[in-house]
Amino acid sequence: MFSHVMIGTNDLDKAKTFYDQLLGTLEVRPARVDGHRIFYITKTGVFSVSKPINGEPATCANGGTIGFACNSPEQVDKWHEAGVAAGATSIEDPPGIRQGSGGTLYLAYLRDLDGNKICAMHRMPN
Fold first, then answer.
1. Is 70 helix (H, G, I), strand (E, B) or coil?
2. β partners of residue 21
3. Which of 70, 73, 85, 121 would be 106's cystine partner, CB 3.0–4.6 Å?
4. Do the beta carbons of residue 20 and residue 31 sit within 8 Å?
5. Which has the closest alpha carbon to 3: 44, 63, 49?
6. Whole-number Cα distances in Å, 98 to 37, 86, 94, 110, 121
7. Strand, coil or helix: 63
8. What is the pLDDT along the chain (126 residues), one digit of tens a residue?
9. How far apart, in Å, are the Cα atoms of 95 and each of 51, 99, 108?
10. pTM listed for this prediction
11. What is the rounded CA–CA span in Å between residue 120 and residue 126?
């Protein structure tokens, strides 16, 4: 459904260091730099971080969350640990199982260096 997701940053170098480390836990290669943007290109989509082209400060979405698919609860935990070690803030409940209308999920949430809400998710077998 989606071709790509792009979020803003106020410090591209710090964002690249952070997301290279974080997404490396999901076996994603380091970002490709393209001027004021970085791109993580996978066979399932593209995640990008950009300095705003209008020159205004980047802000995070109120109510927005970017979710990353994981292969196991252990990968979610590794993602969360790498994010905290790289300067993210752990938010909401600790990583763990959540029941919802979408089934049983193993989730972890972080705020990145610019305040963007990000999530790692593994769908548990029914």
1. coil
2. none
3. 73
4. yes
5. 44
6. 34, 25, 11, 16, 10
7. coil
8. 788 999 999 999 999 999 999 999 999 999 999 999 999 999 999 999 999 999 999 999 889 999 999 999 999 999 999 999 999 999 999 999 999 888 999 999 999 999 999 999 999 987
9. 30, 13, 4
10. 0.93
11. 19
